[in-house]
Amino acid sequence: MAMKGLRFGQYILLGIGVVGALTLAVIIALSLLATTHGSTPAQTTDVSAGPYHLKVSLYDAPAHAGFALPFAIQPVSSIHGRLEYDVTSYPDVTVDATPVHASVSTDSHVANGVQGNAEIPVRGNWTLEITVQGPLGQGYATVPIEATTLPPFPYWIGWLIGLIPFYALIVFLIIYWRRQKPLPLVDVA
Fold first, then answer.
1. Which domains, ranges and CATH numbers included, belong to the chain?
2. Is the full-model pTM beyond 0.70?
């Protein structure tokens, strides 16, 4: 009987471990998908940064607060010379956040184009400010961004997850009590 209780407890722990590993894998996959460029942009905006006419592609519209916003920038017409980009996401005055410098890398498929990820940590209105330095001088452009959050978590799911330690304690106590051998009765006469 004791071995059955031990095996049952091991299966419970194995199940919890498998569920935890699967949950971690899903979270990692969602984080990776959130920062990769899709095949088609969700929003494309043409802007002028001084003498440079640019096409800015956003791959999430509206942006997801708390995740990086994938974007791509390319010149509309060919430019003789090299363009350098500096991109920063600025919060609106009503948003309690600080500006965040975006990471950019050259796009091997587009001449003078870049791809990058702009961090949008909180929801609200943001502005993607693009600074371009090239043979015709320096130029600035801005692209408005709206960041939204996921819908609120249902209370019942929160309670279900929050009580997991209680459920584990109950299972542990059941297994413990089943493994206990009854004390022998002693005749005092």
1. 2-30+153-179 (no CATH), 39-148 (2.60.40.1930)
2. no
